[in-house]
Amino acid sequence: MHTYNVDQNGYYGEFGGAYIPEILYENVDLLKKNYLKILEDPEFQKDYHNLLRDYVGRPSPLYFAKKLSHKYGCKIYLKREDLNHTGAHKINNTIGQILLAQKMGKTRIIAETGAGQHGVATATVCALMNMKCVIYMGKVDVERQRLNVEKMQMLGAEVNPVTSGNMTLKDATNEAIRDWCSNPIDTYYIIGSTVGPHPYPDMVARLQSVISEEIRKQLFEKEHREIPDYLIACVGGGSNAAGTIYHFLNEPSVNIVLAEAAGKGINSGESAATIHLGKLGIIHGSKTLLMQSEDGQIEEPYSISAGLDYPGIGPLHAHLAKTKRSEVLAIADEEALDAAFELTRLEGIIPAIESAHALGVLKKKKFKKEEVIVICLSGRGDKDMETYIKIQKKRNG
Ligand SMILES: Cc1ncc(COP(=O)(O)O)c(C=O)c1O
C-alpha cells in the first residue's frame, strides 16, 4: 500500500528531488538535515501552535453550508481558511518557516508571490519577528492584486515587480532563486507552496497539515465521523490541497478531487492546467509535470487567478494524480467566476478566485444525499474585488 510520504532523497515516486545550482548545495543540504529535527522539537511546536491559535485565529471553522448543500443534494462543509489572519491558508506556512529561519540564524527573508497572499503572509511574519523582507512579484500580478502590494509595503517589505517572461508567478520565483544564489549565507527563502527543491514540498505540506488535522476533529464533532466522502481543493503549487488531504491520504474511502485552472479552456492555448497538459521536466528545483513545448521550453501559463497561474505543480500532486489517488479536474475562468458569485449569493461569503476553482467542482460531479463533502475555502475575495467588479459589469451589460 502507498504511504505517499516523501523518500529520503526527496521523491514522491518519480517526482521531486533537489535540482539546484551548486552555490545553493550547502544551504539546501543544511535545511534537509535540520528541518524535521526543528519541526518536531517541542519548543518549536509550542511556539508554532501558540501563534496559530492567538495570532492566526486557529482552529479555522468548519462551516456547514446549508443552502449550497441543498442546491447540490449532499452535505457540504467549508473549511474556512479565508477567516485566518491575512485572509488565506498561506500564513500557516509562513509562521512555521519564519520560526525555522530564526532557529537557523538567518536575518533576511525573501519570497515569491502570485496572488500576493503569500507575499502578505511573509511580510506579516517579518514585521512580527523584525526581519528584513524582500518580495518578488510579476508585474502583471502587481497590477491585478494591487491591494496586496499596498499591504506588503505598509508592512515594511520591499516589493520588486518582475518584468521577465509573462510577468507572473514563474518569473517571480526565478528572480527569488537568483536573489538566493547571490545571498546564500544570511538569506532564508520562504517558499509559498509545495514546490521547489526537497525538503520544501514536504516541509510546506507538514506546516499546512494542520488543516486536515482540524478537519478530522471538527467533522467528528459535527457528523460523528472523522472521514468525509470527498475532499475538494484547488491546486496552484498545491499547498492548501496538501494541507487538506495530508491526514486522509491513507484512508482509501476518501475521494480526493482537485481543481486546477483551465483558464480559457484546456485546449485553448491559454490555460494553467499543468496536470492535464504537463510532461516530465524540471522547474524551480524539482522534477515534476511541467507545461512545455515539443523542444522542452516552458510554456507560459494563463489563468484569471494569479495564485493558480503556474506552469508546474508540486511533486506530491504529480504523484497522486499519476497513481490515481487524486482526480484532477480543470476548471475554466468562467466556471470559477460562476461558482464565486453563487457562493456569495447563497452563503454570503466572497471567496478568493483561487478557491472559487475548488467550488467549480460541485457542478462537475454527482453526489448522493448522505455524502459528506469538505471543500477547502483557501482564501477570501477582498484581493479579487477589482476582477469581480469588472466581470459583474460585463455580465450585466
Ligand atoms: C487564496 C489562495 N488559494 C490558493 C492558492 C494556490 O496556492 P496553493 O496551491 O499552494 O494552495 C493561492 C496562491 O496564491 C491563494 O492565494
From TrEMBL:
One example GO MF annotation: tryptophan synthase activity
Superkingdom of this protein's organism: Bacteria
Gene Ontology, cellular component aspect: cytoplasm
Stretches that traverse the bilayer: none
Cofactor(s) required, per the database record: pyridoxal 5'-phosphate
A UniProt-annotated Pfam family: PALP
PROSITE patterns linked to this entry: TRP_SYNTHASE_BETA
Enzyme Commission code(s) on record: 4.2.1.20
Keyword terms: Amino-acid biosynthesis, Aromatic amino acid biosynthesis, Lyase, Pyridoxal phosphate, Tryptophan biosynthesis
InterPro entries: Trp_synth_b_CS, Trp_synth_beta, Trp_synth_beta/beta-like, TrpB-like_PALP, TrpB-like_PALP_sf
Enzyme class, first EC level, given as a word: lyase
The keyword Flavoprotein belongs to this UniProt entry's keyword annotation: no
Pathway annotation: Amino-acid biosynthesis; L-tryptophan biosynthesis; L-tryptophan from chorismate: step 5/5
N6-(pyridoxal phosphate)lysine sites (modified residues): K90
Chain ranges of the Tryptophan synthase beta chain-like PALP domain: 57-379
The reaction(s) this protein catalyses: (1S,2R)-1-C-(indol-3-yl)glycerol 3-phosphate + L-serine = D-glyceraldehyde 3-phosphate + L-tryptophan + H2O
Function comment: The beta subunit is responsible for the synthesis of L-tryptophan from indole and L-serine.
HAMAP family found in the cross-reference section: Trp_synth_beta
Family under the similarity heading: Belongs to the TrpB family.
Subunit structure: Tetramer of two alpha and two beta chains.
Protein name (Swiss-Prot/TrEMBL): Tryptophan synthase beta chain
Organism per entry: Apibacter mensalis
Gene name linked to the record: trpB
